[in-house]
Amino acid sequence: MILASLSDAPRYAALHPALPALFDYVKSHNLLTAPTGCLSLDGDALFINVSDATLKTKEALKLEAHRRYIDIHLPLSAPEIIGVRHLSTLGQPDVPFDEDGDFALWTAPADNYFVVHPGEFCLVFPEDAHAPVIGTGRLRKLVAKVLI
Q1: What local confidence, expressed as pLDDT, does residue 52 receive?
Q2: CA-based max dimension of the chain
Q3: How far apart are CA 82 and CA 134, in angstroms?
Q4: The 3-state secondary structure of 43-80, one letter per residue
Q5: What is the DSSP string of the chain?
Q6: What fold, for 2-147?
Q7: pLDDT digits (tens, 9 = 90+) for 34-78
Q8: 17 band by pLDDT with thresholds 50, 70 and 90
Q9: Whole-angstrom distance, CA of residue 145 vs CA of residue 48
């Protein structure tokens, strides 16, 4: 898991060949006014989900993990709390892995919670079970999906 400022994004570009294109797109477009939905930057290899979410309590959310994608969470309109826990500490998922949706879910709590502010991003790898959209109110956010 990585939490960083978008101004430092070039430092992380070497982690995956799709990251430079993602960060360039995010920096060069006003996504606060973009329609909600999926923006494909490179088919299934790189896309962005734009959403307007209602933030929830820690207890209302399940940890999720993916096998095929890295998630990059980018809050746009307000801070967002994200919980994380290493996959190796969770055991069997409460909702078994869904191949088509690329996710499994656990009801266990996160080990750590942190705030991601607009202008920052949180990059979560497949070993990082995570619970995003924690807080109160509404949030415009992006979740980029990078195929690994």
Answers
A1: 98
A2: 41
A3: 6
A4: CECEEEEEEEEECECHHHCCEEECCCEEEEEEECCCCE
A5: -EEEEGGGHHHHGGG-TTHHHHHHHHHHS-TTSSPSEEEEEETBTEEEEEEEEE-B-GGG--EEE-SSEEEEEEESSS-EEEEEEEGGGT-S-SEEEETTTTEEEE-SPPSEEEEE-TTEEEEE-TTEEEEEEESSSEEEEEEEEEE-
A6: Jelly Rolls (2.60.120)
A7: 999 999 999 999 999 999 999 999 999 999 999 999 999 999 999
A8: very high
A9: 6
How is residue 146 written in tokens?
A: 């990078």
Tokens of 31: 């996504």
pLDDT of residue 46: 98
For tokens 């709390």, the residue is 81
